[in-house]
Amino acid sequence: MVGDHFHEKWNPLQTNPYPITYINNEPKVDKKDFDSLKKEVEDMKALLIRAKLYDEKNGEPHCEMEEKIATLRKIAELVGVDLKDIL
After folding, report:
1. How far apart are the first and last CA of the chain?
2. If you average pLDDT over residues 24-46, what whole number do you get?
3. Per-position b or e across 20-45, b if 16+ CB within 10 A of its CB
4. How many Å apart are CA 8 and CA 49, to the nearest integer?
5. In the prediction, which pLDDT does 42 show?
6. For residue 72, with 0-12 CB atoms within 10 Å meaning exposed, 13-18 middle and 19 or more buried, which class applies?
7. What pLDDT does 2 receive?
8. Count of CB atoms within 10 A of residue 3's CB?
9. Among residues of the chain, what percentage have pLDDT more than 90?
10. If DSSP codes are grouped into helix, strand and coil, which group holds residue 2?
11. Is the pLDDT of residue 66 over 80?
12. pLDDT at 76 over 80
């Protein structure tokens, strides 16, 4: 559920809620938007950790899809959040 929510929110085919402009082929984003996105990614990571613990405790199967994981990793990487320990 957590992965589905953020994948749908940040899927590259969707409208980007944090507009990025390019200057000299370099991405530029407002610091406020960057900080907001980073906070949201950190919150998502905390939710994913809790969801993973719940699944392990209750014997739930691993159900992440690579497409969803790729989206979450890409957005996390953009703001410098490491998801390797949970995805």
Report:
1. 14
2. 84
3. eeeeeeeeebeeeebeebbebbeebb
4. 19
5. 96
6. buried
7. 84
8. 19
9. 28
10. helix
11. yes
12. yes
C-alpha distances in Å from residue 11, one per residue of 15, 24, 41, 50, 75: 8, 25, 14, 22, 9
Q: Give the pLDDT confidence score for residue 7 in this predicted structure.
A: 80
Q: Give dist(CA 86, CA 54) in Å, integer.
A: 13
Instruction: Give SS3 for 30.
Output: coil
Q: Which amino acid is at 33?
A: D
What are the counts of helices (DSSP H) followed by strands (DSSP E) for the chain? 3, 2
Residue 13 has pLDDT above 80, yes or no: no
By the 8 A CB rule, do 38 and 81 touch? yes
Output the average pLDDT for the chain: 82
d(CA 64, CA 48): 11
